[in-house]
Design a protein that fits this description.
Blueprint: E1 6-12, E2 17-21, E3 25-36, E4 39-40, E5 46-47, E6 50-59, H1 60-69, E7 75-88, E8 94-107, E9 115-116, E10 123-124
């Protein structure tokens, strides 16, 4: 048995890049920053703050929600799985891109007067 499960809570680094493909399929790509706080060890050594940037891919209804409601700086919760793609750049060099394929998303940033529903895109004012 194997498990490929990722849970992230972080802040969106830039506006989502949303594309509409054939057959009304939507895909959204965004970057999510997760930051570990700085701390000091017992011996006085200071460990600085560290930010990781994650490439998030959302499909279908999740992508539609991202297009309408997710903005730079928003705090979101993502559950998904890791996927690594391999490709060759224009110079023939093999490159790798690690992505999180989102399976669920929750908005953690509140907006005045708006309550977000599930990943299907419902909202109430």
């Amino acid at each position: 048995m194997s498990v490929n499960k990722v849970i992230l809570i972080g802040n969106v680094g830039k506006e989502p890049d949303v594309r509409h493909l054939d057959r009304n399929v939507t895909v959204a790509n965004l970057v999510l920053a997760t930051t570990e706080r700085a701390y000091t060890l017992q011996n006085g050594t200071q460990v600085p703050e560290r930010t990781e940037w994650h490439n998030i891919v959302l499909w279908g209804g999740l992508a539609d929600v991202a297009e309408k409601y997710v903005h730079k700086g928003d705090r979101i919760y993502i559950e998904g799985k890791i996927r690594t793609n391999t490709y060759e750049d224009q110079n023939g060099i093999r490159r790798y891109r690690t992505e999180i394929l989102a399976e669920s998303m929750e908005m953690l940033t509140s907006r005045v007067g708006v309550v977000y529903g599930s990943e299907t895109g419902s909202s109430n004012s």
